[in-house]
Amino acid sequence: MNIHALRLFTKVAELNSVSKAAELLRISQPAVTMQVRNLEKEVGFTLIESKGRGITLTPNGEFLFKQSQRLFDLESDIERKIEQVKHSGVDELNISTSYLPANFLLPSWLSKYKQTFPSRKVNVKTENTQQVIKQLLHYKADIAFVIEESEHHPDIIYQYLMDLEFCFIVPYTHRLAGKTISLGEMMNEPFILREEGSSTKELLLALCKLHKTPPPKIGMQLYGLTESIRTVASGYGVMLAPTIALDNYLHQKQVARVYVEGIDIKRPVYFCMRKNELEVPPSISDLIGIIKES
């Protein structure tokens, strides 16, 4: 495959415009168009179609665009790691993680890791589950930690670590505090929901679908676990939350559990890597060893 033509097509797809890609790359628009058409002939299907003043990707074009993005992200990752070796020789570990592992699991693991390997640099980026997997696929992260998704990505290896319990909570003085009710009754309360892409939100909606219960009434949507729990602790709404994040709030009588009939929720935590990696570098294998010993 003509890598130069693939690179031009990728830039056209990113900008949704042949003319903008040509301007950015400082080559003529006809030259970009010709390269994209040659690529279409090479792969055997149409990649882009005209739409108004811009372009739109065909389904096959979308597929190739996603694959080419990952290819050039890998190229950038290789260049970045070469520069690290040339200028510092220090191993760097880039971690992408969802909020729950970031706040309640990684701190102790990374503390032991840095005590054992003080010269190694560690970068941690916290996102929702969908963004974490995207970061890993596009070589923005070396490894990732997530709570189970509804579907596992076929290009990711998911290594099970542990189960975490989830429960429903309300403000401490709420009329349902400490009571046992049906899932339908629980869904009638105003819920604090997480943002799109949150595994906890996906879990709640899947739970309603499984038990044929209408989805929750949305009282508020917040980006982040801590913000959501604090809102409930301040006196408004109900939510589904991991028990590992609730100890202080329960002990200080800021929130209370509500027990839902027939519902026992546990979610697995996974350590994730890309498939088909040629070898696992020491920076990753050493962290895996520390996690297994914890």
UniProtKB/TrEMBL annotation:
Transmembrane segments: none annotated. It holds the Pfam family LysR_substrate. GO terms for molecular function: DNA-binding transcription factor activity; transcription cis-regulatory region binding. Keywords: DNA-binding, Transcription, Transcription regulation. Signal peptide: none annotated. The keyword Transcription regulation applies. This is LysR family transcriptional regulator.
